[in-house]
Give the backbone structure.
Amino acid sequence: MLGAVVLWSASSFPAVPGQKLGAGFLPMLIGAGLLLCGLVLVLRGQRSPAGSSAQPAPASTLRDRASALAIIVAVVAYIGLADRLGFLLVAPLCLLLVFRALQVRWALALGWAIVGTLVVHLAFYKLLRVPLPWGLLRPFY
Amino acid sequence: MDALATAFGMVFQPFVLLVILLSALYGLFVGAIPGLTATMATALLVPVTFFMAPVPAVAAIVTATAMAIFSGDIPSALLRMPGTPASAAYTDEAFKLTKKGQAELALGAGLVFSVLGGIFGVLVLILAAPALAEVALKFSSFEYFWLVMLGFTSAIFIAGKDVIKGCVSMLLGLLIACVGLENPAGAPRYTFGNAELMGGISLIPLMIGMFAVSEVLRFALAHVKPEQVADRPFGNVFSGMGRLIKKYWLQLLRGSALGTLVGALPGAGADIAAWMSYAISKRFSKEPEKFGTGHVEGVVEAGAANNSALGGAWIPALVFGIPGDSITAIAIGVLYMKNMNPGPMLFVENPQNIYAVFIVFLLAQLLMLPLGWMAILAAKRILRIPAALLMPLILLFCIVGSFAINNSMFGVVIMLLAGLLAFCMERWGFPVAPTILGVVLGTLLEEHFFSSLIKADGQLLPFFERPIAGALGAITLLIWLWPLGRRLLQRGAARPS
């Protein structure tokens, strides 16, 4: 709780510097507001004994945390690699990673990763004409 | 009347009807899977609707959400797991009914009263929206400024549990809205020299991130094994419904009216409507002791309320462009993309579009009866699909969808960051709805504030001079001061004792 509070009040500082008179007005108000709320939250956090201010986060196991991390890694990998390697290569790999992170059996995961990629490719690239990146596969297009 | 005929022509086309049918099935499916919410269903639909004409696009959203809110009742009755947050209020009650061997009653009541509540909400929408639009035509920037303020106020003070945290969420949303060149001065703000940020943060990837990606992350952290559904064929779910309607007509009306009202308030949607009307139903019931033991009364009232809230939420969305809940916040984004900017002018310039939306609404409610029944019959099979298989596919869909809006990888970056932000916010107890409201209304707020300020020559008094603006402003200030006043009163009352 306190960590969150500190984070909010800290994040409000860069908001304060105003630019031109007009454009800076709203950000200035927002910065001031965030600062104020942060202060109130800090005060409230101090008044009530630590931890009592309801943090519902259930204890998650290491394994669950790893799987959440894997999801983030998969998206970051897609962002970084899709343009270079192409959608048809990166998407199944990302899917496979997330499937495994959620403890889906290998065979099932592999099958669904390929089917899912193909379905999305058909729906978005062929049907809706979204230019999904080709990357390495460009020569085969 | 001409417009009405045109509207019928727009809706009853093979393509539009097909879209409605498909999105109905999609909505039923998404709603029935615990962990996938109605808002997520909408966010995932947007990339697809992006490529449609306005009427089928809105039709898809309207139908899918209505179905999802009903079918959330199915797993709550059979598994004691609400399919959408809107069913959470009466999950225990419905599950206890099932345990008593009355699964048909629980599901049937959920279905029939969802339809009736939904129709009530739509009727109010049809009657109220054009009338309000006529009033809204006379609004100047002063009135709009106060309306937006009132929207924020209601999202924070009425819908939220914690006012301060709600404030932080809203300010965060406003901060996101500040990014880019779109401000009265045309000065780049928070772009950090990045060309992509100049255009501002696009709404759709943000929404997909906040409502879908955060949900996938949450699923990964709280890995729950689904329970087994009682293996038993269902009887006729409609038997006894006529008797229920006769017995609980008052509850039906009360739930629907409350649901519509709560839905129309910005920031409060179907889930809050269900909680409130379940509580009211218990409070005013003749047999409150039966609540919590498998009593159908609360299911009737709250089931009607959460579906009527959907119609209610569209009232401020269509008339003022102020979303009544997070689903309409997404829908407003879609309307803007389709050049169907919400506001009173929509009713004057394109009445046929508005009528078409109304017709779709009614059609969706009527379709819910047969399709909902089919969903109940197929429930066992739907509920057997493991969510672990769906989540990665949803993630891929999110990525491609965010990419598709601007055909740029930057959308995917926004999606990921928004997902992480929403996930952390929820963990720390900050509500997400005010943030979305802040993002959607931020530009509107600044625009109206500055044009009002210029008109008023920099003075604040004219903000209260026009009668409607003055009243709206007074209400807003009153709600702000209310907690303070109450504390003073309490302190005053405590001192003599």
